Recover the amino acids of this structure.
């Protein structure tokens, strides 16, 4: 994209808003990409997180996820390193194996962000997780076979479900996983 044609509309601590012609879009100020972790415990449970998300004013069920390179002094952080860090921070689990699954834009009409899905296996619980000091994350362990019904139940209770969870389920059920 030709940066000379970008008109900066706003820059905050975390996002910038640009316009090119008639198109407006968001770009992260810090970070080199987002990671989404499909984490499966040795018992066959999928790790899901729940937290209140202010932009949608609701609790949202998500896969563990985060931004690579958003911490001062770690701007060149590798995606796999960020995936390990975010998995531990949010869920309290360490993964022996972290495998690349796919990458792509989650909202190509709105943002420049690229998301990379990683599969985390051979997990070991080392703490209770819950996120950093600005997060209040609840960790759910749901048997893979029960995830669709569990998600339907949560949606019926008024929680929102991040569609990336359904993409993660697809990867969790692949025979090579």
């Amino acid at each position: 994209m030709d940066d000379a044609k970008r008109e900066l509309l706003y820059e905050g601590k975390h996002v910038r808003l640009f316009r090119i012609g008639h198109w407006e879009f968001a770009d992260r100020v810090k970070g080199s990409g987002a990671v989404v972790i499909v984490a499966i415990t040795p018992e066959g449970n999928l790790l899901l997180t729940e937290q209140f998300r202010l932009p949608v004013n609701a609790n949202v069920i998500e896969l563990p996820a985060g931004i690579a390179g958003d911490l001062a002094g770690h701007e060149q952080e590798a995606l796999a390193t960020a995936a390990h860090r975010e998995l531990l921070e949010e869920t309290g689990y360490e993964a022996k194996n972290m495998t690349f699954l796919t990458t792509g834009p989650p909202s190509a009409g709105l943002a420049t962000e690229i998301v990379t899905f990683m599969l985390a296996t051979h997990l070991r619980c080392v703490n209770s997780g819950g996120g950093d000091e600005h997060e209040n994350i609840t960790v759910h362990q749901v048997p893979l076979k029960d995830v669709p019904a569990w998600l339907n139940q949560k949606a019926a209770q008024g929680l929102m479900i991040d569609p990336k969870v359904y993409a993660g389920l697809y990867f969790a059920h692949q025979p090579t996983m």
